[in-house]
Design a protein that fits this description.
The chain is of the alpha/beta class. About 30% of the residues lie in helices and about 15% in strands. It contains 11 helices and 10 strands. It has helices at about 20-25, 45-50, 75-80, 105-115, 115-125, 140-145, 195-210, 235-240, 250-260, 280-290, 310-325, and strands spanning about 5, 15, 35, 60-65, 155-160, 170-175, 180-185, 215-220, 245, 270-275. Helix 7 (about 195-210) packs across helix 8 (about 235-240) and helix 9 packs across helix 11 (about 310-325).
């Protein structure tokens, strides 16, 4: 709680400051040089103010910035890549260059857990992505992942339910004999209460999967009351013959499970396929399900920052409830004989 200043014997001073509201708090500075860490998290107004405070005569008036790669609209990219000054210099690196100084399997573990946009930015050091609202599942390949599903007698049918209230979504999935996930059916009704939603699900169960065993999954909001009913959605569903399971989790963790399921295994096949019937889910996988633009992109800015269109998000929420409760974070099935969810190069 000191003054955050380091004084040299020659009278020079280094001032350490956070840059929140710097365009206001730094107006009175009279400095020779500025150094910014995590520049991708700093607003343009703050940077411009600091550059304007470099006004000590007889000094080179330097500006240093250390940053993760940013999106193509960020001031860092504009100043140092798109419209660089003749006197500016850009030094680029990536995580692999520091391999010898990192713990064993550090990079490999992050590659398993990170979405492809994070891998490109935070591991490979590539520009672009998060600020422009990139696709959630960039590695989805229609020629690989879109396949006709088959029914395996004795295996359960998983039903994911996103109550959504105004825009609910339902997804049916079914494991094959190797417990690979087949996304088989989808339903996107509008403004349907839990009782009618349950009746619609049961009706479709009879048509699509006669005499099958069903397991139901929903989000933790199924335990919450709303102003229009004294019962929770799970209680209403249970009263109508459907008993959903739920497990609270971070959104990004659930999406990571799906990303690892669609990775190509050693045998050239993914652990998840999507039936051609599921046209909306397929559109979402092919790029319509996206992150919103992030002006201050960072590792902590992703949770919940998904586009809410009422079209793709209810269905992918429903799919996330299924996969998170039936597979591990790496995309394996829980048990003694896990599926190899990764290719040999991973």
């Amino acid at each position: 709680k000191g003054p955050n200043e380091f004084h040299f014997d020659n009278g020079s001073i280094i001032i350490f400051k956070h840059l929140e509201d710097a365009e206001i708090t730094c107006k009175s500075l009279n400095i020779a040089a500025v150094g910014i860490d995590e520049a991708d998290e700093v607003e343009l107004d703050a940077v411009q103010m600091l550059i304007g405070r470099r006004r000590q005569l007889g000094y080179p008036l330097l500006f240093f910035a250390v940053s993760n790669p940013t999106g193509l609209t960020h001031w860092v990219y504009k100043w140092f890549v798109r419209e660089p000054s003749p006197t500016s210099f850009l030094f680029r690196t990536n995580t692999a260059e520091n391999y010898e100084n990192l713990p064993p399997d550090y990079i490999r573990d992050l590659e398993r857990r990170y979405p492809i946009e994070w891998i490109r930015r935070y591991l490979r050091g590539e520009w672009g992505g998060l600020e422009e609202g990139g696709p959630v599942f960039a590695s989805f390949e229609p020629s690989v992942h879109i396949q006709k599903s088959l029914f395996y007698k004795g295996n359960p049918v998983w039903v994911g339910i996103d109550f959504g209230y105004q825009t609910p979504g339902v997804v049916w999935a079914h494991p094959d004999r190797q417990r690979r996930c087949q996304v088989t059916r989808e339903w996107l009704p509008k403004e349907m209460d839990p009782a009618k939603l349950a009746q619609g699900i049961l009706k479709r169960n009879e048509i699509w999967f006669p005499q099958a065993q069903f397991l139901y999954y929903c989000g933790h909001d199924g335990k919450q009351h709303n102003s229009s009913s004294a019962s929770t959605p799970i209680e209403i569903m249970t009263a109508n013959g459907i008993r959903p399971f739920w497990r609270k989790h971070l959104i990004e963790d659930g999406l990571t499970v799906i990303r690892n399921l669609i990775k190509i295994r050693d045998d050239g096949k993914p652990n998840m396929i999507v039936d051609p019937y599921c046209t909306v889910v397929i559109e979402g996988f092919m790029g319509e399900y996206r992150y919103v633009p992030e002006p201050k992109a960072g590792l902590q800015a992703r949770e919940g920052k998904l586009q809410k269109t009422g079209i793709y998000d209810p269905l992918f929420d429903a799919l996330r409830y299924i996969t998170y409760q039936n597979y591990t974070l790496s995309g394996d099935k829980p048990g003694e004989e896990p599926i190899n969810a990764f290719s040999s190069e991973d």
